[in-house]
Write a structure and sequence with these properties.
By secondary structure, this protein is α/β, with parallel strands linked by helices. Strands 3, 4, 5, 6, 7, 14 and 15 form a 7-stranded mixed beta sheet that branches. A 6-stranded parallel beta sheet has the order 10-9-8-11-12-13. The radius of gyration is 20 Å and the shape is globular. Helix 4 crosses helix 5 and helix 4 crosses helix 9. It has 10 helices and 15 strands.
């Protein structure tokens, strides 16, 4: 794949164009990656439509925070052994020196929010240059198409680790998209007694089963879901967090992921306190969650390729956005190739 080609640029919400890509040479501590494939998700759609909150997007931008590729060059101070390695990379930038970073909570870096594909140039281009410390190397025989779906797996890992389920736990995941299904697959390693995926489309039941769910429910058929130990909200919808608290037993744990939609129903503090519910959150993924997801993937405990339904050229970015916005339950993960 030649480093020459086109890159996607969003000048403003709804304003997209293709530009000639000019690779940026890696500076000190950086690596240049030849992009193999880049994924799209709801956050990209929100940036395209102007729905992503202002602190979490900066126009103009080249999107692309889910990607895989091969290192082609490194800058001074970066390990020369990276050249030629297959890699994925963390999106959230971190300083490595603040108190949260030193405690391993790189997703809470005190230097402020910066993320590849939202405030920094992303991977919808033939090459991506970023700090080498953010890279996670993969075995030589890795399928890079599957690896391009590791970013949502890392976010799922962050939620699962925050949930800390015990063997035999009664667990539910709200959401049958990539994040929810990958969280289900990771939860299987904790030997839950019951693992239910709650979605909106009955047609996702078979996929949920293949990702480890013991049951699948749509909201209109979820009245039997009560007294759960753990619930992970992998949707961030207008009412999902509030609804999730009604599924938990007293003392149960709820983990919220992503950025809740504007106008989401608020949790009732009296309900939360009286029932002594524990509520955790996961935004992005720490370096530790990334390492956990990459290990699970290399051991074939994560199989994200099954989520892929469409592969398009990077010039078809707008078509990818239309597919995601269409609401067709048959549309899963959409990958673009530079």
């Amino acid at each position: 794949m030649s480093p020459q080609g086109k890159a996607v640029v969003l000048d403003a919400p709804g304003s997209c164009r293709l530009v000639e890509h000019v690779p940026r040479r890696p500076g000190p501590g950086e690596a240049q990656v030849r992009v193999h494939a880049v994924g799209t998700c709801g956050s990209d759609l929100d940036a395209y439509l102007g729905r992503r909150p202002a602190p979490y997007v900066r126009y103009p931008l080249t999107p692309g925070h889910e990607w895989s590729g091969t290192v082609t060059a490194v800058g001074e101070g970066a390990p020369a052994s990276l050249v030629g390695r297959k890699v994925v990379g963390e999106g959230l930038r971190n300083c490595e020196s603040c108190a949260p970073c030193r405690a391993g909570e790189t997703d809470l870096c005190a230097a402020g929010y910066e993320e590849t594909g939202f405030t920094r140039p992303g991977a919808m281009a033939p090459t991506l240059t970023l700090p080498a410390r953010l890279l996670h190397t993969l075995p030589p025989d890795t399928d890079l198409t599957a690896a391009a779906l590791l970013e949502p797996a890392a976010r799922a890992a962050a939620a699962v680790l925050k949930a800390s389920p015990l063997p035999g736990s009664r667990v539910a995941v709200i959401g049958s998209g990539a994040l929810g299904l990958l969280a289900s697959q990771l939860l299987g390693a904790f030997s839950p007694g019951r693992l239910t995926v709650v979605g909106t489309h009955p047609g996702r039941a078979g996929l949920a089963d293949r990702f480890g769910a013991t049951a699948y429910r749509t909201w209109d058929r979820s009245s039997d879901l009560t007294d759960l130990d753990v619930v992970i909200d992998a949707v961030g919808g207008a009412s999902t967090a509030r609804a999730a608290t009604s599924l938990l037993r007293p003392g149960g744990r709820l983990v919220l992921t992503g950025i809740p939609v504007h106008g989401a129903e608020r949790l009732d503090p009296a309900h939360v306190v009286a029932r002594q519910l524990s509520i955790g959150t996961a935004f992005g993924a720490s370096s530790g969650a990334w390492s956990y997801a990459v290990r699970a993937f290399t051991l074939a405990r994560l199989t994200p390729l099954e989520l892929l339904t469409h592969e398009l050229g990077v010039a078809e970015f707008e078509r990818a956005m239309d597919l995601m916005a269409g609401g067709d339950p048959g549309v899963g993960r959409v990958l673009l190739r530079p």
